[in-house]
Structures are given as C-alpha cells and as structure tokens.
C-alpha cells in the first residue's frame, strides 16, 4: 500500500484498501456532506451460522474457522436458535452438512460432540468505529473508511442485515509505541439505530440514515478535492469521552494522489489517547472549512502518526 512502516487498522479487524480516483464532476450540485465523528456500535446479522475456531469433531476430522453450518440432518440452519432447537431431539448422532469455501462436506457426529460446538459458533458480528458523514441529499451515511473483516472468520462477513448505533465511550486504553490503544464503549440504546447497513465495502460501511435521528446532525461542509489539500494545520472530529464529538488539531505531513498522512498535534487528545486509537477509524478530517476525508490507519510504532482516505474516494465506494 505504499507505506514503508508497519500499519494497523483503527478498528479491531484486518482489511486491504484498494484506491481509485473519482472526479468532482460526478457530484454536480450534491458536493456537500455533514461531517460526523460520533462513536458507533456496529451489529450485523450473519447470513447463517459459522464456525469461529478449528474444532476436532472426531479423529482426523476437523471443522474449520469460517465453515458454514447449512443443515443438521434434513433441517436447514439459518440461526443459532435453530441450531439449538434441533439439538433438543434425543438422538445418538447428528448428520452435519457444512459449506467450506463453496464445497459441501458431510459429517456424521455424536450428539455430545455437536452440543460442544455451541461455544464455537456465531450468527452475528459486532464492532465499533466512527461515523464519517451523512449525505443530506440522498439520506445515506458512510463510516469507517475501510471494510469490516470479522476477526474470527478472517474475512468480510456475509450478512443479511445490520445497523449502526450511537455508542458512549466509557474508558480509553492509551496507545503506546508498538501497542495500539482502543476505546471501551457501549451502545446507548439498542432500540434506536442511527442507520441500516447496506454495504460492507473496501471503502467503508454504507447504508440508509434513520431520518428520525436528526439530533446528531450538524451543518454540511463542501467536499475538498485532493488537489486542494495542503501540508499544514487541519483538524479531526472524533469522540473520546461519552457521546460528545470534539475537534482536535492535526498536521497534514504528506499528500499523495489517493491518500494522505498526518500527525496528531493536539495536546489534550494526546494526553487522553496517546495517539490514534482502534475505534477512531472513520473520524472526519477537515481543513480550511472543507471536508477532506477520514482517518483510516495508524502507524503502530508511532501512534501519533496516521493516514487517511480522501472523501471522494470513500463516496465512490458508496456509489458502487
């Protein structure tokens, strides 16, 4: 990705970024977005039941992390609840149908062994990050600036539905050289979602904004073109305490065609966080009153240093 130093993603997942250009002409009159910076909880209902760890089911036969449980006997399985209900049948053995990277596998397994699989199965995934923007023209949002990769499945999760929620920062584990810090947060209200998740793409997560949740919105800003960004002072919007979005100073240190680098300079932020944190991914970057892009990476060995994605590239991901 063009970096000479080791990088870590600012959410607790792995991802590969692929960049492309996107011209300003495509935006026409819709060239403003509302910068956010709110901490969000992410919940995604997976498209089935998946194995989270390699599990030995009998001598020489393993279920692998990422395997999908398709059937128990002739019963199709879509959720963990269905899996558990099927196991209530009093049987000595169960027949498992497993999908492994598109290949169908069959296993005949003792009932006790199948029941022991439960701690190693999941039908949902959760995470945290930062809301980047709301588009007042289309009623959509964008967050994170990179793809969610499930840490146990080690791949972008196949999901049937999902939503983002306002979360509250309760504690901060500060970043140190070689050891990225993180936010400890919880969802404020599980019954009030900010938006639905439509896409988990390489440029972030995108979906429809909940119109009923207007109290977190601020004024829109004009989108900055990459050619306009200059080295020097800028700011990020992010949340490090409660639900309050704050502005913190940074300095742009390098501008490339499709990305940029920066260093945190705000004494208050550095005192609180020690540098960029996991969960800060998606924080809006602003310069001269224009919306530049989003924080996407940190330098693990130098946590004050980070990298960002231009907003027009991120929006390109929404439109794909």
UniProtKB/TrEMBL annotation:
UniProt keyword annotations, A-Z: Hydrolase, Protease, Serine protease, Signal
InterPro entries: PDZ_sf (IPR036034), Peptidase_S1_PA (IPR009003), Peptidase_S55 (IPR008763)
PROSITE patterns per record: SPOIVB
Signal peptide interval: 1-28
Domain Peptidase S55: 98-320
Keyword Hydrolase belongs to the record: yes
The name this protein goes by in its record: SpoIVB peptidase S55 domain-containing protein
Source species of the chain: Sporosarcina contaminans
Taxon lineage: Bacteria, Bacillati, Bacillota, Bacilli, Bacillales
